[in-house]
Design brief:
The protein is α+β, with helices and mostly antiparallel strands. The protein is 63% helix and 16% strand.
Length: 489
């Protein structure tokens, strides 16, 4: 990468040599070309590369050591501009020597093609601008590759931006469009006859050589960062949040790339937060919190919902005699079996209660057929657990209570200790129904409200009106026997 910078700075020597050759060839002045070439070698190779080494020294040291990027970031950002100014100064010296020295030495038009004063000053201006513009865009193209290299090797990115994208475009268009026309206009006013034809031909041939080079580097400098940014956005749109782009330009596009990287980091953190948060509360609640509650609180709302409580039959006795490690492993396996039916039917697990859990349907996630969804999930849970042998040879038969009614849902807590919860008599009733399974030797008990709300999709057996702890009136209770059959009892 170090040699490439010096090569980039040397390209201007080739450009000036070719233009000098075209001029001398048109006037059959090859002895003058030899003198120009010698000056170019001394100034555009020797002096130029010496100055380039001074400009590039801090960057060269960082490439070697990888230490203190902040100390060279400003130099790196300003590398194209400083290099361009240095070359412009050298071009002004060279062109002044070529156009003024023959006059000072008393040369005649027969010895050296002398220019008019107007053509002299316009040529110095245009050639100096040529050196500046070409060097700026060539080194900007080099900077793109250098930043990509530093990003891969040291993981660093530009964070300072001094350039202007619109100014880059203006300079590029202005030079390529105005410079040739300016020279031709001055020459039309300065010469006549064969001399005018020769001067215009020189300008056209020089432009035919220089403009493709200028357009290539301008295009590369302006479009490559945009193309890379577009590719990065396409990857993010496809779900790849690990993408991080090198910042390879020193203006608004580079700043936009930096913001793109910050956005990708934010999306990764948000995704990780939702994934991690979803391990402690339902992922659906976590997503809703992240989208709707920037302060971490979901506002309270009242809605009809179906509540489900589950519990493992005989777990207390089982926990006293089972190996603790085997018991925990069995519980993990058990939950891996119980959770999918609830989530598949649109339910949300609000909390784990020892060996049981509390789930809700229609709050916080909307579910129009919530009662039927809860009963269907309960049947799948019982079917999946009643004959299964879990880790350690343990059987974990499940009891489930289901009730439908109005509940209040929202975030409660203080400080940094918050919890999403559901409140209301309907919640307590569902918990009591789960407990009644033990008295009646049943697996799934539902309240009359859930049976009516679920519709004729399941097969039930009425157990009559029963007292529910905490309620003054008796409630009709039903055992769930199966699905998709007419109600009996």
């Amino acid at each position: 990468m170090i040699r490439r910078y010096y090569l980039a700075m040397s390209l201007i020597f080739v450009v000036d040599t070719v233009i000098s050759f075209i001029f001398c060839w048109m006037y059959d002045a090859f002895r003058l070309f030899a003198l120009n070439l010698a000056v170019d070698v001394v100034v555009l190779l020797g002096v130029n590369l010496y100055g380039a080494s001074r400009i590039f020294r801090p960057v060269r040291a960082f490439i070697a050591s990888g230490e203190n990027f902040a100390g060279i970031e400003r130099t790196l950002t300003q590398l194209p501009l400083r290099s361009a100014f240095w070359v412009a100064i050298l071009f002004m010296v060279i062109m002044s020597e070529r156009l003024f020295l023959p006059r000072l030495l008393g040369a005649t038009a027969s010895q050296v093609p002398l220019s008019t004063w107007g053509d002299t000053f316009s040529t110095i201006f245009v050639q100096t601008a040529l050196g500046f513009v070409l060097t700026y865009f060539i080194v900007s193209g080099y900077l793109e590759g250098l930043c990509h290299f530093l990003f891969r090797r040291h993981g660093v990115n530009l964070g300072l931006f001094f350039g202007s994208f619109s100014l880059k475009i203006g300079v590029a268009l202005g030079f390529t469009a105005i410079a040739p026309l300016l020279l031709i206009a001055v020459e039309v006013l300065s010469y006549t006859g064969d001399r005018l034809v020769q001067e215009i031909l020189i300008d056209l041939m020089a432009a035919a050589f220089v403009l493709p080079i200028a357009l290539y580097w301008v295009s590369r400098t302006l479009t490559n960062p945009l193309r890379r940014l577009d590719q990065g956005m396409e990857k993010v749109a496809g779900g790849d949040l690990s993408i991080r782009l090198p910042v390879t330009s020193n203006e608004e596009v580079g700043e936009l790339t930096q913001r793109f990287n910050q956005m990708a980091v934010g999306l990764r953190e948000r995704d990780k937060l939702r994934e991690t948060f979803g391990k402690y509360v339902s992922e659906s609640v976590a997503s809703q919190l992240l989208q709707e509650a920037p302060d971490g609180r979901l506002t309270g709302q009242t809605r009809e919902a179906t509540l489900m409580f589950t519990d493992i039959d005989g777990f207390t006795t089982l926990s006293e005699r089972a190996d603790p490690d085997a018991l925990i492993a069995a519980l993990d396996e058990y939950l891996a079996v119980v959770l999918p039916p609830i989530q598949r039917h649109g339910g949300v697990v609000n909390t784990f209660i020892g060996d049981g859990l509390f789930a809700s349907f229609n709050l916080p996630l909307a579910n129009d057929d919530h009662a039927a969804a809860a009963v269907a999930a309960a049947l799948e849970i019982v079917e999946a657990t009643q004959e299964r042998v879990f880790t350690g040879g343990l059987r974990l038969p499940t009891r489930i209570g289901i009730n439908t009614g109005l509940v209040i849902g929202g975030t409660i807590g203080a400080g940094d200790r918050l919890s999403y919860t559901l409140l209301g008599d309907a919640v307590n009733t569902a918990a009591r129904l789960q407990e009644l399974n033990k008295r009646h030797g049943t697996r799934i008990l539902v309240a009359q409200t859930s049976l009516l709300r679920a519709g004729p999709k399941f097969r039930y057996t009425s157990l009559g009106d029963m007292e529910i702890r905490g309620r003054s009136e008796r409630l009709p209770i039903h055992r769930v026997d199966g699905r998709f059959l007419e109600k009996v009892g």
